[in-house]
Write a structure and sequence with these properties.
Rossmann fold, alpha/beta, about 240 residues
Length: about 240
């Protein structure tokens, strides 16, 4: 294994998570590829990571469960010895009119987008603090700072706004520990999901590589004085 940092990317079995994991493999010594149920996708991501010269390990977990998230971090630390970079990419979306939502739907979206990141962040911070170096990048939503109406994705938008608040709170708390905590917020991305199950492939939107490049910058040495920021990678989408 080449010398360098170790990254954990959640939800890395496909799409944006895969693009981020593969991009980080260009500069990291190892990448832990998290997945929940799609093992084959995670294995494919791991192969791409290894093709770029980094070590890779696939690690399953249901991150909506706190105990499972803690175990995930322990498992990665056991395999690689540490976690230097944490990318909280897991973020399920639900399209449904706001007044038709059940309490269970709210909880599911909040657990998937906000609590999963909170659990992983809390579990990874002690090791980063001991080494006095760390990078955390939470994947947000291009309109997370817009306090507007979201009639069909209300729990998702609320959870991503909460994730931004978590990002800035953690950043302020870790200001003296060498740990930078930031958010990268995509707009609609090629291959992403639109209401009704349609994909965004034909809308000439941003590409996963654009987001991955932003994440890689914030995960690197050059971002040592950048923390608490929300880097929006959305072009002029709904500006």
């Amino acid at each position: 294994m080449r010398e360098g940092r170790i990254a954990l990317v959640t939800g890395a079995g496909r799409g944006l998570g895969r693009a981020i994991a593969v991009r980080l493999a260009e500069t990291m010594a190892g990448v832990a590829v998290h997945y929940r149920s799609h093992r084959r996708g995670a294995e494919a991501t791991a192969r791409l990571v290894r093709d770029r010269g980094a070590a890779a390990e696939i690690v399953p977990a249901d991150l909506s469960d706190e105990a499972a998230a803690k175990k995930l971090v322990r498992d990665v630390e056991r395999v690689f010895g540490r976690i230097d970079v944490l990318i909280n990419n897991v973020g399920p979306i639900l399209f449904k009119p706001w007044d038709k939502l059940s309490a269970a739907a709210w909880e599911s979206v909040f657990r998937g987008n906000l609590l999963s990141a909170y659990y992983c962040l809390k579990s990874a911070l002690p090791g980063m603090r001991r080494r006095r170096w760390g990078r955390v990048v939470n994947i947000g939503y291009g309109r997370a700072e817009h306090l507007a109406a979201f009639p069909t994705i209300l729990p998702y938008a609320a959870a991503k706004t909460g994730l931004l608040l978590l990002t800035r709170t953690a950043a302020a708390s870790e200001i003296g520990s060498g740990i930078m905590v930031n958010m990268v917020s995509p707009g609609l991305i090629e291959g992403g999901i639109l209401p009704g199950g349609r994909t965004a492939a034909r809308l000439r939107l941003g590409a996963p590589a654009d987001v991955a490049a932003a994440v890689a910058f914030l995960a690197g040495e050059e971002a040592g004085r950048i923390t608490g920021t929300n880097l929006i990678v959305a072009g002029t989408w709904k500006m």
